[in-house]
Specification:
With about 250 residues, the chain is an alpha/beta fold. The chain has one domain: Aldolase class I (TIM Barrel), CATH 3.20.20. It contains 11 helices and 8 strands. Strand 7, helix 9 and strand 8 form a beta-alpha-beta unit.
Length: about 250
């Protein structure tokens, strides 16, 4: 069976990180999003954190205007808390991904505990869905979490690939193989339960192959690595190279 083309969502958070390191307005993450769209990104992702460490409220508003004008989906990542939900409802992006968030972390680490937070998350999913956004849940490739996500009413899950990336970086191939198997099984289960399955976190040119080859995956969201590589090779070439790695992996797996 031929798998559908794997979509690439480009996360532009860390263009804002560079801007905020010095202050002012440059580099502008919205200009970066436009460049990513011109380079072939299928969507734009941005995380409005509670501490506003990179993306700011006005960035999200401008990103929504840009993505509407370019007919490209905006995926807004937020914590499942009231003030973020209210902002997301006002902006009305195409998609909203609920993620865990801790102030002390450098980046999102681990997946959302949908099973443990069912009574909190389910009403938020309903509220955001009724407002016109497609809700996804950023979770581990764990059977209980995937089943809880399906029961919550969210149409999409995004599997956390960070542990797999970290294991490969540490040279722990046995652990990486176990995590990869869990992601493969999790993606299959998610699809069987009627969920659209995405994946993201820690993905690079070197490790994207096995992830992209998972046939049930419909989209990868990649940010930090692409923005980092853009320093050396330019944003267009970094996106093109990631796209090539993804397409080659999927073609090989057919």
């Amino acid at each position: 069976m031929t798998s559908p083309k794997l979509r690439l969502g480009v996360n532009i958070d860390h263009i804002a990180t560079v801007r905020n390191a010095r202050g002012g307005e440059h580099p502008d993450p919205v200009a970066g999003a436009f460049a990513a769209i011109q380079a072939g990104a299928d969507g734009i992702t941005a995380h409005l954190r509670e501490d506003r460490r990179h993306i700011r409220d006005d960035d999200m508003e401008r990103l929504q205007m840009l993505c509407e004008a370019e007919d490209i989906p905006l995926n807004m990542e937020i914590a499942a808390v009231d003030d973020m939900v209210e902002i997301a409802k006002r902006i009305k992006p195409h998609a909203i991904c609920l993620v865990p968030e801790r102030r002390e972390e450098r980046t999102t680490e681990g997946g959302l505990d949908v099973a443990g937070l069912h009574n909190t998350i389910t009403p938020i999913i309903r509220e955001l869905s009724d407002n016109g956004s497609r809700v996804s849940l950023f979770i581990e490739a764990d059977e209980s979490q995937i089943r809880a996500a399906a029961a919550s009413g969210a149409p999409v899950i995004e599997i956390h690939t960070g542990a797999y990336a970290h294991a490969l970086d540490a040279g722990d191939e046995d652990t990486a193989a176990k995590i990869l198997k869990a992601m493969q099984d999790g993606a299959k289960l998610g699809q069987e339960l009627g969920l659209e399955v995405h994946a993201g976190h820690g993905i690079t040119f070197d490790n994207v192959g096995e992830i992209a080859a998972i046939p049930e995956l419909m989209e990868l969201n990649i940010g930090h690595y692409i923005i980092g590589e853009a320093i050396f090779m330019g944003l267009e070439d970094a996106i093109s190279e990631m796209r090539k790695c993804m397409d080659d992996a999927r073609d090989t797996s057919q």
